[in-house]
Amino acid sequence: MFASTTLTLITEAADKPHKKMTLAEKGEQARQESVELEQTQLQKAREAAKATSEREQKALAKVESNDWEAQQLEKARSQSDERLTRQQKYLQQAQEAATQTRKIPKETSIEPLESE
Fold this sequence. Notes:
The protein is mainly α and 116 residues long. The chain has helices at 2-15, 23-99. Residues 1-116 are annotated as: Disordered.
């Protein structure tokens, strides 16, 4: 009986890995956990940096598109100003022409030519 009880206790002890760890083993386990934690944090930092970079690229693209829009608006404004300047020039020329007195030559009497 005693032998079977001892045998049962030994097999239960072997099944359970609750052995006391030495200080060196605890230190090694802590180092491994530290390395794993560091790797996890590095991976999270990489993912966050990538997400930040993508947001920056989107913002930059939006700003660049706004620059293009601003250039197009400026171009349209300058063309409109040129058109208005031309219209004002033509209007001024027309007004000057309207104020000038027209000198129409007097009709000279046309005498019939005498034929011989």
